[in-house]
Design a protein that fits this description.
By secondary structure, the protein is mostly helical. The longest helix is centred in the middle third of the chain and has 66 residues.
Length: about 190
């Protein structure tokens, strides 16, 4: 936008200026809303994807700020020369300051957002670990009960063969890694 005639058109038309604000704010809102995930969103991406996108956004802001700083042509030159501002730095220095502000403000928004995503990633990981631990503890308790019931049946002499098969099945279930039964990973560990 800064390197096209759209930038100077914004100065001359209030309608174009408001549409530009909408064109910049709506995608920005959708971007942050879907990546931050405070409210339910239509599709939740993994935090790795969200963090890569945010990192690219931070780099993109830096790139735009550096491009504005490095541009030897004055952006919106006719408009700013017509202002004939008697105070402040030169127009070229003002453009360098504006590019630096864009770069720094992009990082000031992006880096804390990246930190917020990292904190959410750690919280989600802790809650997933707690749920997995609870499931494993419940499975272990069931296996212990089955083993105790099998020992009682074997000691009494009743259903010795069935208890042996049950204990064998319990041993097999206990020797399986937890992730083979986790619905998030079952498709990854199927034999080919």
């Amino acid at each position: 936008m800064y390197f096209t005639s759209w930038y100077t058109t914004v100065f001359h038309s209030a309608a174009i200026r408001e549409l530009t604000y909408l064109a910049l704010m709506a995608p920005g809102f959708a971007f942050f809303w879907t990546l931050l995930r405070v409210d339910p969103v239509p599709k939740e991406y993994s935090y790795a994807v969200s963090m890569w996108i945010t990192g690219a956004e931070v780099i993109g802001d830096a790139f735009l700020g550096i491009a504005i700083i490095a541009d030897q042509n004055l952006l919106g030159a006719a408009w700013y020369h017509a202002l004939a501002r008697p105070w402040g730095p030169t127009l070229q220095a003002d453009q360098v300051i504006g590019g630096g502000a864009l770069w720094i403000l992009g990082d000031l928004v992006g880096v804390p957002f990246l930190a917020a995503q990292l904190i959410q990633l750690m919280r989600e990981d802790e809650s997933d670990a707690a749920a997995i631990d609870a499931n494993l503890d419940a499975r272990d308790a069931e296996l212990e009960q089955a083993a105790a019931a099998g020992e009682q049946a074997a000691a009494a002499g009743e259903q010795a063969a069935a208890a042996g098969e049950e204990a064998g099945g319990a041993d097999e279930a206990a020797s399986k890694p937890w992730w083979e039964d986790d619905p998030r990973f079952t498709s990854r560990f199927k034999p080919t």
